[in-house]
Amino acid sequence: MMIEDPEFNDGIRAKIKEERVNVEWAVKEVADHYISLFSNIEDEYLKERALDLKDVSKRLLRILSGVEGTDLRSIKEESIIVAEDLIPSDTAQMNKEKAIGIVTELGGKTSHTSIMARTLEIPAIAGVKDITQIAKNGDFMIIDGGEGLILLNPSEEEIKKYEKKKKEYEAFKMKTREMKGKESISKDGIKVEIAANIGTPKDVDKIIENDGEGVGLYRTEFLYMDSDKLPTEEEQFESYKIVAERLEGKPVIIRTLDVGGDKDIPYLNLPEEMNPFLGYRAIRLCLDRVDIFETQLRALLRASAFGNIKIMFPMISSIKEIRDAKKILEEVKEELRKENIPFNEDIEVGIMVEIPSVAVHSDIFAKEVDFFSIGTNDLIQYTLAVDRGNQDISYLYNQYHPAVLKLIKMTIENGHKAGIWVGMCGEAAGDEKLIPLLLAMGLDEFSMNPSSILKARYIINNISKKEIEPMLDEILSLPTAEDVEKFIDENIIS
Ligand code: PEP
Ligand code: MG
Q1: Is the dihedral of CA 340, 343, 346, 349 positive or negative?
Q2: pLDDT tens per residue across span 386-420
Q3: Are residues 15 and 145 located together in one domain of the fold?
Q4: Which residues share a beta bridge with 104?
């Protein structure tokens, strides 16, 4: 498609005509111009498209000048390819039987080579500085794509360890694939729901591919962030409707705008704050900017006529916020009734439990809503007073902290006592070591990255709630997060 692009071709023609240079030079000049344009774009994804252009121009030049290139099709032995960079056509032509791993100095998670390697399920590590200088042809190398680890000329013992790890991984993957179409039910018959976290309607493909049972969190802020103005009611309605329709009646929990903290929307001109995570954000902003909130609620309610949509408010810290938000929701409903616009009259309304005071007081909060969804990403940061984005103190941010687990357990129990269901949409819901504890605590819904769904289902199907339940008291009284993790490793995950 790139070599058919009229702008690209006209540019080359013009150069030849006007500057009387040869065709190879013209191709190089024009391609270099576009490569530098793409390289200067801030968006990581678009920036990496410069590599695609480099690839196309290199191939054009190779053909024009009649030079033979290195051909990854002809790899004879099983090999790990180590390169400064791999252009997508190299990766596409690679002999997949023989190329069993890829290591590159350049590129990142969203470079096409990484994307293709992931699709082909070839272990790959990108961005390894100087590896082409360090590794030599014929060296023995182990790469662990999951951990981002390279072992060069490993010992016999290391080889054995990784052969075992590889076998276990393959066996585990086979087993998780078998989970497609199955129920998420524990050995002792406790059925839970495993749903997906999404950011855009496009992510629904991944839910279907991984057999997700619904959407546990639709982060609508991306709709606002991917634009240079507020999305209109119509634009929002379309996005929510598509997701609801494609999920065919499965639950779709849509979270109202959760902006602020680390998520900025430049055109809202949010004030500079000393403590943005504790400041003017999410529901606080929506209750202040009622115009923004009402538009979103109208779009959400209208879309609710096309599927099983539930509404969730983020960053709730007081009962008054819930009541105020619900009051506005009722007003918007009334408006729609007057306009004869259909919506689900019984739409469920829930809140994120991500502030410690709400977890502690969850018996009271539970009386105000239809469901809770525990947001551990923020709950951990507020409980432990550790900024979730600060690398320097990231060693303090820990999902196994007993204080966090106590809050989770308390929230689930209080929710159940009040007769509402309780889910979790923070990253902890997909954590393989925590899943057994969460099941034992009675969590009803686990919402996670779509690619973790089948693994989570496998774990649930292989544990028994009543075997883990008696261990909970002991786990929650352990002194540290490290003790909790060790306990799980030794007694639960085998
Ligand atoms: C959370 O805080 O756990 C959560 C799911 O929301 P976000 O990561 O968008 O803050
Ligand atoms: Mg949050």
Answers
A1: negative
A2: 988 776 788 899 999 999 999 999 999 999 999 99
A3: no
A4: 83
Q: Could you tell me the distance, in angstroms and rounded to a whole number, from the CA of residue 396 to the centre of ligand 2?
A: 18
The reply to whether 219 sits in an annotated binding site is yes
Q: At 309, give phi and psi (nearest 5°).
A: -85, 140
* 171 part of a folded domain: no
Whether 343 maps to a domain, the answer reads yes
Token reading at 6: 């009229």
Which pTM value belongs to this model? 0.74
Residue 159 falls inside a structural domain: no
Query: Could you give the 3-state DSSP secondary structure of residue 99?
Result: strand
- What digits encode the pLDDT tens for the residues 225-255? 878 899 999 999 999 999 999 999 999 999 9
Best residue among 378, 407, 424, 447 to mutate for probing ligand 1's pocket (most ligand atoms within 8 Å of CB) is: 378
What ligand is nearest to the CA atom of residue 377? 1
- Burial category of 324 from C-beta neighbours within 10 Å (exposed 0-12, middle 13-18, buried 19 and up): middle
User: Which protein residue's CA is at the shortest distance from atom 3 of ligand 1?
Assistant: 375
Q: Quick one: how far is CA 34 from the chain centroid? A: 31
Calpha distance 194→214 (Å, rounded): 7
List the residue whose alpha carbon is closest to atom 9 of ligand 1: 219
Question: Considering only CA atoms, which of 199, 156, 208 is closest in space to residue 180?
Answer: 208
Domain assignment present for 342? yes
Cβ burial of 318 (10 Å; 0-12, 13-18, 19+) is middle
